[in-house]
Each structure stands twice: as C-alpha cells, then as structure tokens.
Batch of 2 targets.
Target 1
Amino acid sequence: MLRPWCVAALGCALAAAQTPDCKLVAGWSQNGPARVYEADNLFEYMDGNAEGYLIYGFRNMHGVNCEKGPVTFVIDISDMGDADSAYGMFSAARDPRVATERIGMGGQIVPRRAIFAKGRYYVEIATNPEGDHTAALRQWVAALDRTVEGSTAVPAALNWLPAEGQQSARLIPESVLGIRLLKRGYVAQYEFGKAFVVLEESPESAGAVMEKLRARFGETAPVNIAAEAFQASDNYLGKLCIFRKGRLIGGYSITSGGKDAVGLARALAGRVE
C-alpha cells in the first residue's frame, strides 16, 4: 500500500509532467512566472477565445513563456478531460489548408505556431516575433511529445467513418447536424453529404433520443439496421438514414449526388464496434 506522502508525491509528479518546462530544450530559459488557469478564469487569459476551449470540456491549463535570444515561445498545455475532447480541440484549431502530422494523436506545425493532441491534453506553442520558427518549433514539439502523457491512438470513432472521399472529420461538441437532441459526436464531411456517430450514456438513453428524432422529423419509415433505424427527408439535411446500435446513434445526411443513405448507414453500422 502506498503511504500518504507517496500518493501525494505521485500526484505532484503526474501534474508536473503536464507542465511545460523551458529546460526541456537546451538554450531556452523561462521569462516571467508560470501560469495556471481553470474554466472559471480562462477568460482572463484567452479573452474572447475562452469559449472555444470551454465548449470542448476544458478543465485547466498550465503554461510558461520560454525565450532564446530575441525569440519567445508561449507554451500552454490544456487538460481537456478526455481524448475525444483534446482531439476535438485540435481539429477545431488546426489550419485546414495545411497537412496534419502524426504527433501524438495528431499535430500541425506552421512557421509561427505548433499544436498537437495527446491523450486528454491539447498542446500549443505560439511564437514571437514574426518569422519562420519551424526548426525550433519541431524541437519543442518533439520534447513535449516525449513528456506529455497519454495515448497516441486517434479516437475510435474516426476509424468508423469511411475514409474514402472524406473531406474532413471532427468532433462536434454540441448539436450534431444542427440537431440539439444529438448532443456531441463526430461528423465526417463528404462531397455528397455527411456521416455522423454520437455516443449516448446508455442504450436506453439512445433509444429515447431515437424516439424524439422520429417525432422531430415527422414522417419516417422504419429500416432494418442494427437495433433500430429509420429514414426521413428534411429541407436542410436532405435524405436521412439514422440507426441505433447499443448506445451509439449514427447515420447519413445526403444532400447531393443521389447516394443511397440506407445502404451507407447499413455499412457504417457494420463498421461500428
């Protein structure tokens, strides 16, 4: 059994492991005090951008400014609560015009900024002054990737959504497909429409959501997919097929191209574990 002082020390060690240290990369030193923010005071640091973190389940942030000569790196590590939220934050923050890299679960490095997600943590580095700091950013990202704990496996839901023809895939923190009943889930964009998966707390709560969805869309037709499914039409979402498999709700919204929503939904249900 661990003694109380061992438990406390272990807790401190784990916390410290997620706090950036300017000594991680040779030649850099700390400029100013370290910072810690939680959900209730993040706005003091992020100003108008705090809501973009809070919507993804932000818990706390540890940060520090590191300098080398005239260059300053602003480094922050945010605990987002779980890997889905951390990856969702990364997906929302990345530049869609720039390729992502396998750093942690996913990362991106551009001349003045670097971000990546690993486990439940979202890591970001901003640079000052202007200029191309790519080489130094890569050093820092490699050091932080070694230090930050957590899995490097992307959220399982991303593997369920078909990759062929996929334009993007990201966690939607609320109102999936613009439907408030679908509280949080992954959506993949295709030329012809969207695929989505939402995890409810239990099969029973998912069943209750399905019932409310039928009422929302009005005229629906049952489909033989997984535990239950239906198809419907909507002025905005086009042809829909929505299914439930255990506590998961998934399906397709087809807005162009004449694709078969039922066939696609059936294939998606087969991919879900």
Target 2
Amino acid sequence: MPIGRALLAALAVAGALAAGGCGGDDDEAAESSSSGKPSGTLTYGTWGGEYTNALKKSMLDPFARESGVKVETPSAPGEFVPKLQAQAQANQVKWDLIDPGEDDVEVLIQQGLLQKLPADLKAFMVEKVGKENVTDYGVSMGAYSDVIACNPEVAKRCPASPQEFWDVQKFPGRRSMYGDGWNMNIPYALQADGVPGEQVFPEPDVDRAFKKLDQIKPHVNVWWKTGDQSQQILRDKEVAMSIMWDGRAYQLRDQGMKKLEISHDGMRSQRELIVIPKDAPNPKAAYAFLRWYVTHPKAGAEWIEEIRYGVADPKALDHLSKDVASEIATSPENTKVTYPADAKWAAQARQDVLTRWTNWLGE
C-alpha cells in the first residue's frame, strides 16, 4: 500500500487511539533511566536503505559492541505514524526507538503514542547537547534541508530555487518531486507563486498552493517514494532535476556524480527526533542508546560523513572537514538561505491536506 494511503487509513483510527487512554505518561517520565544494565534487543524502527546502513555503521553497531545489546533495524520509511498506530491498537508495540520527522512526532504526541523522556535522561542530554536539541519526548537527529539537485549533463539549465524549478520554459528537463511530500510541496508551490519563504508559515494558503501545483504536475515525470529511489532516478538519468533531501543529493556527489548541482536557496530545513514509543518492549536499552548517542561526537561526525544529515551534538562538527561541515543543513552558510519548516502546522493540517493531496495526485 502506498505511503500516502497508509497514512490516510491510519487517520481513521487516530481518534479511537486518543480516546482510549493512550496518554498519561507522567509515571514513565518520572522514572530513572540509569538504573540497571541494558540487555536483550533494541529494536530501532528507521528509514531503511542507505539511511539505515549509515546509522548502523556509525552508531548502532558500535553501541551494540560496547553495550552487549543486540540491535535490530526494521524499516518503516515514512510510515511511522500508521505502523505505530497499528501496533498500539493490537497491544503489540514492537519498537523501542524511532526517528520520525518532527511533524510526525507532533501527531504521535497528540495521540498519546510516545513516552516522555525520564527527567534524569532529559537533563543529561540537555547538559551534553543543549536544550535547543532536546524536547520532552526526544532528541534531534537527522537535521536536513530539502534541496534542488540537477544534473547539468542532462539539463540545459539547472534551476536553483522553487521559482526556477516551476519555470519549465527557461529550465526545461524531466523533473521529480516527493510523492508523499505534501508538506514539502505546498510551501514550494507558494514560493513559486511569489510568497517569500519566511512568509509561508504559520498559515500557508493551501488553495493557492494547489493552483500552482496544477501548473507543475504535467511536467513531473517521477513522484519518488523513498530516498533510495530519489537517488536512483538521477543516477540513471531518468530525470534531470529533483527536489529531494540534501543528504541524498550529497551522497550522489560523493558516489561519483561530481558535476551534480545542489541548491539550498529558498528551501525548508527541519529535523527528525529520536523518540521512544509508549509501551516500548525494552525502554532500558532505548535509554542506554540515547545516553550513548549524546556522548559520542565522533560517531555523529561519521554519520554526517556517510549521509550528510546533522546530529544533536554540535561537537560533531569539530571532527569534520570544512567542506563537509559546510554542506549540512545546520551550517551557517545554509541556514542563511533556508527557512524552518512548521511542524505544528503540518501536524494540524495533516488530515485535511493529506487527503486532498492524495486525491490530487491520483487524478
């Protein structure tokens, strides 16, 4: 089942979950996270493909060796909300950690499907990586920006902004956009229609955005579904240009597409959060990994080298070359030309706008 439809199906059960008493995590939040040695299996639901490979190599495998905890990484690319809803309904929560986007985290909090961090763990992480990187429910992971990536060997001219990406006359070529990226594509449609990025939120004009999306839709040749697919269609020259995640674009350049042009101008920046599902089967292992994560900046630097997404610990940048550090979303160079996504808007708008997006895409 496509991701968009999976989310729509999940929305139908959201009210029942919220009404069924899935909240009430104050007792869990009050417990200590440091008592007892972790053991057993840590099940970390993540994005799959190159993302998971990089996560295992830089963090999860070293953590497993040091702690003795076995780590499993089932993939759920873009499906954290519906899958966790289904697990909770069946009283069979399988994940100890997940790292969804911050807008999905907002939805899961509203539905009572996440556990608050124990107070001592939150305080420890704030001390290590700063309060701006820690919330009541999780810690920053995978900070990224969208980018426009373009292969000049295929495209006559490469666009460098949403306005130019929409201009198919001046910038001809086969295009690609994220098929499940309703909350990505609406802001860019508004910018293409003349709205400055810093004015898109907090109340995007959705009707105006869809009118602009109508203009680009006939020219989008591939609506990619996963990060791996977004890379493959550029490798194969199936498309000339794409709006995609920055880490995936820089990875392509590292893997041989040296001429790939990458632009952050006018694009959104956002982050994922590592969070603990309510009723996680092995919370002690989850707590142990979070403590490990915020105390291993070299591992964070290796993750950035592998996938080009940011981490919570600013000390990771000390272990990177200037060139690599300048490419990530949180670099000073890129924060000057990007703007932050509004996770609260995306969470509030999800039901209505996602339904409209799915129907529009299927027309």
